[in-house]
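Hey all, quick one. A colleague (J.T.) asked me to put the magnesium ion job into the tracker so the inputs and the structure tokens live in one place instead of scattered across chat threads. No bug as far as I know, just bookkeeping. Sequence used:
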Amino acid sequence: MKDIRILFAGNPNVGKTTLFNSICGVHQHTGNYPGVTVEIKTGKRQINGHSIIVSDLPGTYSLSAFTPDEQVARDALLSSGPDVVIQIIDATNIERNLFLTTQLMEIGLPMVIALNMCDLADEQGMTIDADCLERNLKIPVVRIVARKGEGVEELIKTIIQVSTHKTPAVHRAVEYPHSVTSHISEIGNYLSAHASLLGSLSPHYAAIRLMEGDEHLEKMLHEKGCTIPFIDTTDPAERDGIAEDILLARYKISEEITTCSVQCSMGRVMPGDLIDQVLTHRLFGIPIFLSCMWFAFQLTFSASNPFIVGIEYIFGYFTELMNSVDMDPLIRSFLSDGVIGGVGSVLVFVPSIFVMFLLLSILEDTGYLARAAFVMDRLMHSVGLHGRSFIPFLIGFGCNVPAIMATRTLQSRADRIITIITIPFMSCAARLPVYVLFAGVFFGAAAGNVIFFLYVLGIVVAILSALIFRRLVFKDEPSPFIMELPPYRKPSGFAAAVHMWFKGREYLKRAGLVIFGGVIVVWALATLPAGVEYGSADSLVGIIGQVFQPVFAPLGFNWQLVVGLIFGFIAKEVVVGSLGTLYGGEEMLESSLAADPTLHPIIALAYMVFVLLYLPCVAALGVIRQEMGTWKWTGIAIGWGIFVAYVFAFIIVHVGSLFIGA
Amino acid sequence: MNNTTYPHQYLYGWTGIVTLTTGIAGIISIREGAGIGTGLFIPDIPGGCILLLIAALFATAVIKGRTDRPGWISFSYIGALLLVVFAGCAILVETGNFLTLIMEGEEAHLLTIVSSSFIWAAILAIPLLAGVSKLLYGCSCGGDCCE
Ligand SMILES: Nc1nc2c(ncn2[C@@H]2O[C@H](COP(=O)(O)OP(=O)(O)OP(=O)(O)O)[C@@H](O)[C@H]2O)c(=O)[nH]1
Ligand SMILES: [Mg+2]
């Protein structure tokens, strides 16, 4: 059997990735706001001897692409030549989604429509006549509920059926007025003579795209030396008029089909605009957002603490067990200092990470985060950040790497560069262990507040940095913020738990590879040269730490803390890992930190702030380089982070010691 | 749906009461945090500020309610929803703290779990949430509740 290559296309936030995950059994990120997926993800599913290769595309409202992520979707649809295109349609918002359908069906590829979120449509009292849709569009329609996997098997069956059809796909044609059709045939005739330039596009379709104002195609043809009739010979005003006629024809057919196939009755619809009036209120919007965050971090700290204590017990038990067994001192040190001390002290914080991902995922699914972005837009716009940057910021709370990639939803390059430079100030999950550890040891009951403060500080520094870069480097205004506010949806506890589990598992995997590696290096350096006292100032790691320590002396960091910072570059979890290794034994880490006379709350705070701000990890750095495209901006991003971290830590130590009089 | 049979005036009056109680709960939390309280409630200055914020939402609802019914509905709905959700969070936070203390072998009082002033304010807000959310969903069915 041959492979069936299918593409998932559709508007943003209609559940493409949810369906993709359900078909391919994977766990790509989903969330209730537009622009979650920014690059093509491909997966595979074997069924009845067919192997279906699925590509999940970024969402797009139309095929006239403006942002990098939309371009990716457009290119895949127009030039990758899939066997079937599946358009996922949000059943609660059919008319808007059909606009894209009118564009997709003209490509002339076989199509299937997956009518998703049928559960919500039912709840809202909408009756959708799928047969009527099917007849009108001449495209098979399958009802699904992607989140619960309902209808997915039938969808696959239909896909296989459609892909094995011998006859070419004929969908409903959009009825354009005569003024448009005459130009289409004029351009189409011209293009037929140059068909080789068009790749898989039909001349007729290419003509429509050109008249709709497809700049990519136009540029491509111009580069090949074509002079396109009408496009190159008519003045722009007339061309705009024609493009508008095409648009109207599309709206008309979408409206017609919606009217005949959707019936509304009374149902439970959350009147989003009423809620938005409060959540995006001029005065209340930001305080409400801050309160939600404050509770989120209180929970992250307090709700995970009992589990942390439990895990500490388990490690303590193993340490005792090991101490009672006779073994080579080197091996014992490896196990207790390296493995339990280093890796163990990172693993201990897994519960916090789990709780944080759970909360983030619930907030994401309700649609509230998109409102938060909207509220922050007013603030961010005034400092020269694009409001849409806030979505990458929020993703950055999980991990900076996907957050930096999420900047692809920004249109202007200046907006992207500024956002990428500021994303590393968003405190990712890997930094959380450092806070939970230090705040727990030095701030006791106020730990949750300290952690909240750090996250807010991250946002504030990001906004200040944006202000500075916008004033000094990119003097233009940020482009206007247009984001569709997603509908409010009840979060599914199950979906959130699944999300939490997979994110948490990723963290565990990292702990297994990168963190283990990093910690082992620290352990080896602490053991060498042979004969030296483990982890003492004379060991290699001690020497490295002491070489750099003078730089950090004004901040009051001892050499162990400095080693943590240096190796934290591999991954931020290694900060805690290497401290665990150096302070000897995981069980001891908290008490040894508390007992260290060179440390006190002010230094702990400065250290946490430094870790928050100083440097993205290697992985994030790689993505920054990839997305920026130049080393120059990558270097600026690194340098700026270190500079800001140093300044803030310095201020905290010196202002702080005025207060405590030390 | 007929407006006049709906006990709006009671709910509206209740919003006023909840405004007061939430505000008082906020002030108590802040006073406890500043060390001049009764010691019965958990000291929590940021939490107190959040309670005051929610009280401000309720107050806005009351003020709006005189002329703008949907405004009253949406502000009191969000206020009550936040209060109830936060109270749930407060219970979880205190349970977590309680368990941690127990596991570390320190002294802990079971009562601390319910001593957050959020919980007491939220209990009064539950009827408001129930009533107002009915009205809110009503607003989407052709808007008859919204005049
Ligand atoms: N109630 C309900 N919710 C759904 C369904 N399918 C998806 N969702 C939710 O809709 C939201 C958006 O889902 P995604 O899969 O991220 O949407 P997407 O189309 O990939 O979005 P982009 O990548 O931004 O284009 C998520 O919060 C899902 O949990 C469904 O069938 N029913
Ligand atoms: Mg997606």
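Adding what we noticed when we looked at it: The radius of gyration of chain B is 18 Å. The pocket of magnesium ion (ligand 2) is lined by residues A 16-17, 36-37 (CB under 6 Å).
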